[in-house]
Amino acid sequence: MIANVALVGAICFVASSGAADVQTGVSIRSAPVVAPMRMMPTRNAFRMQPRNLRANAEASLELKGYIPYPDTTGKELTKLPPIQEKSPYSDELKATAAAIVADGKGILACDESTKTIGKRLEQIGVPNEETYRRQWRELLFRTPKMNEAISSAILYEETLAQNAADGTPFVDIMKANNVIPGIKVDTGVRATFMDGETITDGLDGLAERAAGYYKQGARFAKWRGVLRIDPNGAPSMEAIEANARSLAHYGKICQMNGLVPIIEPEVLMDGPHTIETQAWVTEKVQAATMKALSDVNIEWEGMLLKPNMILPGTDSGTTATPEEVAKFTVEGLKRTLPAAVPGITFLSGGQSEEEATRNLNAMNKLYPNAPWKLSFSFGRALQASVLKAWDGKDENVGAAQNLFYALAKANGDAALGKFEGAHPATTGSLYEKNYVY
Question: What pLDDT does 58 receive?
Answer without folding.
Answer: 35
